[in-house]
Write a structure and sequence with these properties.
The chain has 5 helices and 9 strands, in the order βαββββββββαααα. The chain has about 290 residues and is of the alpha+beta class.
């Protein structure tokens, strides 16, 4: 089967960021709706009090609510590229929920990164979601990476080629192939560091499914009065890719927004990605 080669495009994050200013009855109504969607992290305030982003709870991903309905085929997905030694910053890491914590020992800074981390299945509401990866520093700019999207029959739907900068950091890549609702997909992301020995290339892989929101999630998202509140709803309902992307958009719109930065760190830390939560986002400024 011939594989179509698509041109990669970086995601230009352009969403504006507005703090929620809710007063009177509108304020009380919105809080009630958000609390119903998020009973474990309900918001409370008296009428007439102003709500800002910093007043919202820490952003925590609830994996138990992820509406995954498909079975994973083949070998387990890895969100880290592996290796027997080195710091976490030397590894290729997919920003996904997973098992264990990706971290270097706090008591022994010289210890190798904990790499025993499998990726959980994820879902998205978007037709063309964005995946995020931590890319370790390269020995030169222009080294290529490859994102392959595969259907449930192990057929490649698209192959996207990306030129990497030399510096390390977190990179967002949007699928150029639309996803159908209800169908499972597999993807593999690899650094083409060894073109003559592909098995030596750093790689991570994941599986995801596009889902339609149910009436409860739709109502909660419609009630969200800010991108931050929307991300809160998505994270609590187990919609990983959309929650992470919403916070990325906030950071891009205003790099000085400390609330967005704190939410980003909180969300990554809640899925065991403490080691890279503070890393620079490479394409938040449009490169």
């Amino acid at each position: 089967m011939n594989k179509k080669l698509y041109t990669f495009r970086f995601v230009f994050l352009q969403y504006g960021c507005a703090s929620a200013l809710l007063i009177g009855t509108l304020f009380s109504s919105t809080l009630s709706q958000l609390a119903a969607a998020n009973p474990t992290n309900s918001l409370s305030a008296t009428a007439g009090t102003l709500l800002t982003q910093s007043d919202l709870p820490s952003l925590v991903f609830n994996q138990s609510n992820t509406p995954v309905t498909f079975e994973r085929r083949g070998r387990p997905n890895h969100r880290t590229s592996g290796g027997s030694r080195g710091d976490c910053n030397d590894q290729l890491i997919a920003l996904l929920p997973g098992t264990d914590t990706v971290t270097t020992s706090a008591t022994d800074p010289t210890a190798a990164c904990n790499l025993a981390s499998m990726a959980e299945q994820t879902v998205t509401l978007e037709e063309s979601p964005t995946l995020w990866f931590y890319i370790p520093a390269q020995d030169r700019a222009g080294i290529q990476a490859e994102l392959v999207l595969v259907d449930d029959n192990a057929q490649a739907l698209s192959i996207q080629t990306i030129e990497l900068p030399a510096e390390s950091g977190i990179l967002g890549i949007q699928f150029d192939q639309p996803l159908a609702v209800g169908k499972p997909y597999q993807w593999v992301f690899s650094l083409l560091q060894h073109p003559n020995a592909p098995s030596q290339n750093s790689r991570v892989e994941g599986s995801l499914q596009r889902v339609s929101p149910d009436s409860t999630l739709t109502a909660a998202l419609n009630a969200a009065q800010s991108p931050q509140a929307r991300a809160q709803v998505l994270a609590q309902r187990g919609i990983w890719h959309d929650a992470l992307d919403a916070i990325a958009q906030l950071r891009s719109a205003d790099p000085s927004d400390t609330a967005a930065q704190q939410s980003w760190v909180s969300l990554l830390s809640s899925v065991g990605l403490d080691a890279i939560a503070q890393e620079n986002v490479l394409n938040s400024d449009g490169i």
